[in-house]
């Protein structure tokens, strides 16, 4: 079975083709800067020795154009890995918000699409692009079954005292206002890897996903106990363009005293805040560069970013009543030693002893970066949301076959 996984973001699409049941990756790719004249596709083929990388810069006005180009790359007589798009039997989609309707991997039907659409206001940066990815894939891979894996699903095991807000009860029962949590596919994937690495099925873990969006989750074995994102993917950690936690009184002040309308507040907190608001850059690589040039705003932003993570580590160590490992993952977590060092500094009372030499080693593999005597392990585990999505799609389809 060929499963093609699509992770459609607002200006990017990540994709990967897997052969099942071995979950062997055939090819993968990333399309960036969709909507601009200099969009970039990086397409990797794993079936050749050595791997082949194709990098193209081209005008891609929208997601449809992007996926059309991917279809061409997949079927190209020279570089293609399939003969025609009908060989894709399943397309697995990442959708960020599944609300309370979806706690599990789901086959896409018109009703499911309508529900995903209803959730647009709760994940305005994500669900609309995810939805577009589904619509385009339905047209591109006509024979395939379309399946969705929700970011919220893994967090559905949280206890009620963790997922409820202290609002009148009807706000939960009638309106569904509660903590949902996000990046669940990634937290689940790295937690499973950590449990296996530690050889401890009920390991107490704090998984820290630091990408463009950032979130942190307390996990015991394979069960999520609490997570930093809430009703939407805006609360908790400081992110590329999102503020993370702020006092809601700031919003009243913006609206009542400064004349902001709701859309302006939304745009401020989702798109103009976080590291972008603090430094002028949302991409951590740019911030690292100006930091090295002595930029003091970047230094302060790094401190805020790490301090917020540290506070959650303290909180989640209490939630778990102990700690076996903290796990760093996603673009920043896997690649930025400075962030990891600032987070782990002065956490020795919790048993976290980072080995700075090991922390500096760059690698694409799971690695342990603590001193051997450290009571708590510090792990860097590359996430692979696409692989986890393929696995879940396969499980669903073989169960229901
Ligand atoms: N070598 C690196 N050093 C520091 N940050 C990096 C590095 N590589 C990627 N990143 C950061 O990772 C972030 C993107 O992470 P990613 O997990 O790909 O996010 P998303 O899936 O949300 O797009 C960006 O802020 C980027 O700067
Ligand atoms: C939910 C979320 O924030 O996703 P991303 O990190 O891909 O923006
Ligand atoms: Mg991501």
Automatic annotation (TrEMBL):
Catalytic activity, reaction form: acetate + ATP = acetyl phosphate + ADP
Keywords: ATP-binding, Cytoplasm, Kinase, Magnesium, Metal-binding, Nucleotide-binding, Transferase
UniProt-listed Enzyme Commission number(s): 2.7.2.1
Binding site for Mg(2+): 7, 385
Cofactor binding description: Mg(2+). Can also accept Mn(2+).
Annotated positions binding ATP: 14, 209-213, 283-285, 331-335
GO MF term list: acetate kinase activity; ATP binding; magnesium ion binding
Entry's localization field: Cytoplasm
Assembly, per entry: Homodimer.
Protein name, as recorded: Acetate kinase
Protein species of origin: Adhaeribacter arboris
